[in-house]
Amino acid sequence: MDREPERRAERRRLSHVDRAGRPRMVDVSAKPVTARRAVAEALVALGPETLSLVIDGGGPKGDVLTVAELAGVMAGKRTSELIPLCHPLPLTDLVVSVTPDRAAGVLRIRAEAATTDRTGVEMEALMAASVAALTVYDMVKGVERGVEIRSVRLLSKTG
After folding, report:
1. What percent of the chain is predicted at pLDDT more than 90?
2. Alpha-helical regions (H) of the chain
3. pLDDT of residue 140
4. Which residues contact 33 (CB under 8 A, 6 or more apart)?
5. Which candidate, 120, 124, 114, places its Cα nearest to that of 72?
6. 56, 93, 117, 138: which one is catalytic?
7. Pairing mode, if any, of strands 34-45 and 106-117?
8. How buried is 123 (Cβ within 10 angstroms: 0-12 exposed, 13-18 middle, 19+ buried)?
9. Phi, psi (5° rounding) for residue 52?
10. What end-to-end distance do the CA atoms of the chain give, in Å?
11. Rounded Cα–Cα distance for residues 134 and 149 (Å)
12. Is pLDDT at 15 greater than 80 in this prediction?
């Protein structure tokens, strides 16, 4: 019985910290190369007038939807430069889409990333969704002060 808490604590050890507490990149060299895919979502809440302005493409800074999608793709490609200890991955696909949802008063940002490698692409999908949401915020902050990035979450991952 005494050894069970010790085993549980060992299982819960953070993978990016060695036994001495120093940060480290996880060694994935023994893992198999597989097709991997991840989908992330971010929600940006806007007032009805701002949402209409974004949908109509009439914002003072330009086409919010297209710029946010492009910013998300660019960010996903640079994830390993921005997140410490994140493996650089050769992405085989990265799509970001921003869809207005008038009923909910939000822009739904969906980012889907794929690779064929030894580690997953969830950080790339999350980075893409996050930066797309931040780009929306930046582009409409002069029109509405109450913009909220409500959530960023991983919807799925495979591989």
Report:
1. 76
2. 3-11, 48-56, 64-77, 79-82, 122-140
3. 96
4. 116, 117, 118
5. 124
6. 138
7. antiparallel
8. buried
9. -65, -40
10. 36
11. 8
12. no
Q: Give the residue among 65, 64, 84 at the shortest CA–CA distance from 127.
A: 84
116-144 pLDDT per residue, tens: 999 999 999 999 999 999 999 999 999 99
Residue with tokens 């996050």: 130
Closest CA to 44 of 157, 156, 146, 155: 146
Cα 22 from chain centre: 26
| Strand, coil or helix: 115 | strand
Compute the distance between CA of residue 75 and CA of residue 6 in angstroms, rounded to an integer: 40
Give the whole-angstrom CA distance, residue 19 versus residue 42: 35
Q: And the tokens for 35?
A: 């097709």
For this structure, is 138 an active site residue?
A: yes
Q: Edge-to-edge strands of the sheet including 34-45? A: 91-101, 106-117, 34-45, 148-158
- Classify the phi-psi angles of 157: left when phi > 0, otherwise alpha if psi is within -120 to 50, otherwise beta: beta
